[in-house]
Write a structure and sequence with these properties.
- With about 300 residues, the protein is an all-alpha fold.
- The protein has two domains: about 35 residues; about 230 residues, MetI-like (MetI-like fold), CATH 1.10.3720.10.
- It has 14 helices and no strands.
- Helix 1 packs across helix 13, helix 7 runs antiparallel to helix 10 and helix 12 runs antiparallel to helix 13.
- The longest helix has about 40 residues.
- The C terminus is likely disordered.
């Protein structure tokens, strides 16, 4: 009696594993692509609306290909929405805040890491403890302090507040790394006649490049946070000429009456939003190499 033998699976386990890995990788990329497109959809809508007229949208539909691109919305946003003034105000507040935070945090980290004095750990723990308190909890005492010092409704108030609330984390990162630098190198520099500031500037900072790369990542994120900040300028600024871009766009949306219609106003708001986002995108592309290096050196892995 003849027997029927079933064909045996001759596929090599390694090839099966390789195909499975390829399928998993493909599925991940497809899923990530879908998520990315979904995330970019509102941005695409904002950009398209800022370059179109309301008549074009009404006739051809919101997602249609524009028949004509126009810069009239950007001109109106630059003048009517006062983006020119608000953009300058945002730079006046954000750039000094970022530079002051980097400079002061590196100085305080150097002092806490390399000098032994009474209360060193207490000061260090105060820095670390300050990072655990959100700004909303300290809003009332900070407001009263700012008002008593005569800093209310000034650029200086926001600059000092930004620096103070970011100083603890950056000092924490740099102090722990500066402690790993051999003390013999610094002692040799002192024997050669170097002052403490020169040691800090010409030796400690170059030796702390890995930590500074990680700090550059935090600096980019800090710049983005300060640039988009709404609550602090809203609380501490009263003069409309000193509004940052985030507050200025909101103010224009609520009270501006020097545009043709509400629909036209929305196109101007879209153009103003694009102009507000442009410096962040430009900063990311210019500092992308340092941003990625900072993430790698900080040990953050996906």
């Amino acid at each position: 009696m003849a027997t029927i033998t079933q064909p045996r699976n001759t596929a090599h386990p390694a090839s099966v594993a390789a195909r499975r890995k390829t399928l998993d990788t493909t599925a991940k990329y497809v899923l990530l692509t879908l998520f990315t497109l979904t995330w970019l959809l509102p941005i695409l809508a904002t950009v398209l609306t800022s370059f179109r007229t309301m008549d074009d949208i009404a006739v051809n539909g919101f997602w249609s290909i524009p028949e004509k691109f126009t810069l009239e919305q950007f001109k109106a946003a630059w003048i009517a929405a006062r983006v020119r003034q608000y953009l300058l105000n945002s730079f006046i507040i954000t750039i000094p805040s970022l530079l002051g935070m980097l400079f002061l945090s590196s100085l305080s980290a150097y002092a806490l890491a390399r000098f032994k004095f009474k209360g060193n750990l207490l000061v260090y723990f105060m820095y670390v403890g300050g990072t655990m308190l959100p700004f909303q909890i300290l809003l009332l005492p900070v407001f009263r302090l700012t008002n008593r010092l005569g800093l209310y409704d000034t650029y200086g108030a926001l600059i000092l507040i930004h620096i103070a609330f970011q100083l603890g984390f950056c000092t924490f990162v740099l102090r722990n790394f500066m402690r790993t630098v051999p003390g013999e190198i610094l002692d040799a520099a002192r024997v050669d006649g170097c002052g403490e500031f020169r040691i800090y500037w010409q030796m400690m900072l170059p030796l702390s490049l890995p930590a500074l790369a990680a700090l550059a990542t935090a600096a980019i994120l800090t710049f983005m946070g300060h640039w988009n900040e709404f609550l602090q300028p809203f609380i501490f600024l009263n003069d409309k000429n000193k509004y940052t871009l985030a507050i200025g766009i909101k103010y224009f949306q609520e009270v501006a009456g020097n545009v043709d219609s509400m629909e036209h106003r929305q196109n101007i708001l879209m153009a103003a939003s694009v102009m507000m986002t442009a410096p962040i995108i430009l900063l990311f592309f210019l500092a992308q190499r340092y941003f990625v290096r900072g993430i790698v050196m900080s040990g953050i892995k996906g």
